[in-house]
Amino acid sequence: MTIEGLWCPSCAAATERLLRDTPGVQEAQVSFLGSAAMLRWDPERISLAQIAEKVRRLGYRLAPPRSERTTRSRLDEQVRALGIRLTVAGFFGVWTMLFSLLLYLGVGQASGETTGWWLALASASFALPVLGIAGLPVFVAGWRTLRTGIPGMDTLVTLGVLAAAGLSIWQLGQGSHHVYTDTAVMLVVLLTLGRLLETLALRRAATTIDALHARMPERAERLTAEGAIETVPAETIAIGEHMRVPAGQRIPLDGVIEDGETRLDRSVMTGESRPATAHPGDKVLAGSVNLESAITIRVEATVGERSIDRIGERVIEAVRSRPGTQRIADRFARWIAPTAIGLATLSALAAWLLGLSPEESLLRATSVLVIACPCALSIAVPIAYVSLAGRAANEGILFRDAAALEQLADVDTLYLDKTGTLTQGRPAVTDVMVRGQLPGKRRTDAATVLQIAAAAENGVDHVIADALRRAAGDTPMPAMEARRHAAGVSASHPDWGQVLVGSPRLLRDHDVQIEPTPGDDLQVEVAINDQWVATIVFDDPLRDSATTTIRQLQQAGITCGLITGDRRVPAMRIATAVGLAPSDVRSDCLPDDKAKLVRATAGPVAFVGDGANDALALASADVGIAVANANSTAAMAADVVLGNDGVAGVSRAIDLARQGRRMMRQNLGFAVAYNGIGLTLAVAGAIQPVIAATAMAASSLTVILNAARFGRSLASPTGHSPPSHPDVAPITG
User: How many domains does the chain have?
Assistant: First the structure.
């Protein structure tokens, strides 16, 4: 079901709490990202209409499910609305702060009480648009979450704002210039900024899903009962119907092959571009590319139910379940909000019992509420993140948010994908096995074979053709007009005649006698004039930095493992090369398998990958890391994106994260100390609201200065950023 009107994750949490506490509802889960609710209820105890009524009383509306394609547009609207509110708050808030600053500097006292009152009125007047436009959604959300018994940051900010604004109005009515509208404005601006940053992060998750779906064909060739072929939108094909997928096209729906034999590129699901043979009866997944010949498929999953669709849904839920900074703040607010209310009430009551005037009692309670608002606590982590993220960006490392930085510092287990992560992600020629002689030559050399094969593949856009051209170098060869076949190419050489380059099947189809070639490597056969000439062997080379990076991570106490969609033999070859034990290797893994292994690992875990098939594992890990040149889907699903040095940047990212964590802890220590001392003095009546607001501003300034100091200390003595090579940037604790 869709829930309309959710403003923030706290709203979603409050709605979920309400539904779970409703008699007859057996299970409830509410997603702010999708504005959706997953419900299971007992129809004999409660009806859907009754559930909808409870949601309506909370201020939202239960509606039929919407297409997931609307998620991104809804978040775009949310970002625009938050941007407008933040712009209004910033514009009018600056004027509020300016007039408040004049009052703090004593202009009102020096110029007379009347001048001070007009300055205070101006400050309050400019605060009204901030509170009415940017603050209204905060107040509504604060009230709703308070009603459900799980007050979040909205509730705490609402209490502080109402206390500061209410006291300011009362003071103006008494002819006094002691107003606290700057405090109210500051709280609204900070929370609105936090909401905008979080919504942008959620929008990125929705963009990840769009990137996955963008790889899927929108139309398919449906076979009618009469055997005719009609091209229709893929979403109109039902389970049990048949579709035809020509060679060279991507499969639009999951199903089972009923007719035809081919080879498939399943890299979108496994990450491996090595073709896999598919026969009648084999299950095929949407997103795979049919490489050789047309096949007929019986559909088993429609649009929205395909494996790739389920991956998208799980990416969304994985992002939602991460401990983002705003949710941390909300958990903090759940105990500080009732504490602040209780202390404020007790302070006012104690002051009244001690014989103080109602005005003085209210001032004392307001001081508690103002100083309890955790401004320094709310910016302690973000300001540290901003300082360190700027430094990291200069080194080609992008941290998506502060939570990613904090989680990466605690990681003790790190899994890596193989292809494109530890390896270069593209095949390269490793060997040429000569099988026969070239026409008119006594000796056939590997260089000539490569040049002939590359010339035959001229104009072909394929990873194998690219590898042959790189291996052949720049030596010119006579131009050959190539003809593409299902399993390779054929061309005519001016001196030697017909050239065949492709799989053993291609050579057999042209009556070339070849012998079975043992081994697990990717191989291409070459024949000239019906004679088998050579076998060219390919492999995916290891990245230069892979071995050094794994060794450094292990020395830092981080357990490393390999999770790949490739087969066991090539996976073990790479693992041995980088120093991983056989027990650290998991092969033949589909995207869901990778994610399950990540989730099953105890303790903070990171996953490093580069392909669309890694998106779910990247989102499921505590920290997902996308290496340089990663697929756009993987990059958007990751928390950390490396722009330089491939996998080598992993160790540097962890080093920076650990330094950033120390900065965050220092900032939190300063903030907690300020709030603790301030609350104690406010309860005792030792400080007035104006002093409370000043102390709150001072605590915020302290964490800002500390972050700036720490950010400068990350640079080397020469003023340049430390190099990102793992040999010179050891991981620190």
Answer: 5
pLDDT tens profile 718-731: 333 443 333 333 45
Residue 323 to residue 306: CA distance in whole angstroms: 29
* DSSP class per residue in 201-250: HHHHHHHHHHHHHHTS-SEEEEEPTTS-EEEEEGGGPPTT-EEEE-TT-B
- 58's CB contacts (< 8 A; 6+ apart) are 14, 15, 18, 144, 147, 148
Q: What is the pLDDT of residues 434-477, one digit of tens each?
A: 888 776 665 678 888 888 888 887 766 677 788 888 888 876 66
Q: Residue type for 207, please? A: T
What is the band of 84 on the pLDDT scale with cuts at 50, 70, 90?
very high
Residue ending a domain, among 619, 651, 683, is: 651
Provide the residue range defining the domain that includes 639: 396-418+543-651
- Are 92 and 146 members of one domain? yes
The Cα 229–Cα 4 span in angstroms is 42
Please state which of the ranges 225-234, 494-503, 673-682 shows the lowest mean pLDDT: 673-682
Q: How far apart are CA 631 and CA 618, in angstroms?
A: 12
Distance CA 303, CA 403 (A): 34
Residues 207, 99, single domain; the answer is yes
Q: Which residues are catalytic?
A: 417
Structural domain contains residue 410: yes
Extended beta strands in 519-634, E state: 522-528, 531-539, 559-563, 585-586, 605-609, 623-626
